[in-house]
Amino acid sequence: MMELAPLVWGLLAVAALIAGLGKTAVPGAATVSVVLLASVLPARTSTAAMLLLFMVGDVFALIAYRRHAHWPTLLRLAPAVVVGLLAGFLFLMVAGDATVRRAIGVILLLMIAVTLWRRRHTDEKPAGPLLGLSYGGLAGFTTMVANAGGPVMSMYFLATRTPVQVFLGTSAWFFAIVNAMKVPFLAGLGLFTPQVLLMDLVLAPLVVVGALAGIALAKRMPQQLFDRIVIGFTVLGAVYLLF
Questions:
Q1: Do residues 24 and 60 make contact, with C-beta atoms less than 8 angstroms apart?
Q2: I want to staple 211 with a disulfide (CB 3.0 to 4.6 A). Which of 60, 76, 167, 218 is the partner?
Q3: In this predicted structure, what is the pLDDT of residue 56?
Q4: What DSSP assignment string belongs to 104-169?
Q5: Closest CA to 147 of 10, 23, 14, 1
Q6: Which residues have a Cβ under 8 Å from the Cβ of 143 and sit 6 or more positions away?
């Protein structure tokens, strides 16, 4: 691990900062962290390393927004998410890295298109069961194979026109629970090596810095700007994964 080039360490540091920021202020920005780690580390190694860094950010997201969660939404999504996690685990065992990235890129772009169409053609919250099943299953699948469930859930919350604080609170609990569930799966694949643990130990303080900065930023962010930032980061991450 210590043989990594200074430029690589710089990119890892930026990824850690953005991971913290994405957890507490800009959902979707965390996709940038996933992209950066996947560009400088082997795909499976980056998945394990990113998961542990995200879990550090989850702690601060819960501290800041735990009271704003909408639990009926979480319970409605839970069955589909579990199915998606299992499907993602099986897919991760058999699919190559390029296939995984492109599949997720296509899924994210489709979610963006559907979300923008729904927001343009209806003023009501689309709270039907099919919406929760589709987004929940895709979130479970994408978060298992590439820690990319954040953009899918962002699209779900934007589709349901969820206010900023409820968005962040529900996301905080969702990913804290889901990420904890993923640990035994990735451990079973032997991905938490001593090198990964040491690297994350070095990067974890930067996640904390990013998370604290995000808490301060979220209090000053208008809803419209928040929505646009989420969509923008999601598009960038999806395009990178696709191409």
A1: yes
A2: 60
A3: 92
A4: HHHHHHHHHHHHHHHHHH-SS----HHHHHHHHHHHHHHHHHHS-HHHHHHHHHHHTT--HHHHHH
A5: 23
A6: 84, 85, 88, 149, 150, 152, 175, 178, 179, 182
Q: Which domain holds residue 24?
A: 6-242
Q: Which residues contact 65 (CB under 8 A, 6 or more apart)?
A: 24, 165, 168, 169, 172
Q: How far apart, in whole angstroms, are the C-alpha atoms of residue 90 and residue 92?
A: 5
Q: Give a yes or no: residue 188 inside a domain.
A: yes
Dihedral (Cα; 137, 241, 207, 182), 10-degree rounding = 30
Query: Which band of pLDDT confidence, cut at 50, 70 and 90, is reported for residue 121?
Result: low
The reply to whether 98 falls in a domain is yes
> How many distinct structural domains can be found in the chain?
1
Predicted pLDDT at 207: 93
Model pTM score: 0.76
Q: Is residue 48 part of a domain?
A: yes
Residue type present at position 55: M
- Kindly state the average pLDDT of the residues 178-199: 88
Q: Following CA atoms 205, 206, 207, 212 in sequence, which dihedral angle do they give, to the nearest 10 degrees?
A: 90
Assigned domain for 176 exists:
yes
Where does 1-70 have alpha helices with state H?
6-24, 30-40, 43-65
How does pLDDT run across 158-171, given as a tens digit for each residue?
Answer: 777 778 778 888 88
Question: In the prediction, which pLDDT does 122 show?
Answer: 53
Cα angle value 25/227/163 (rounded, 5°)? 75
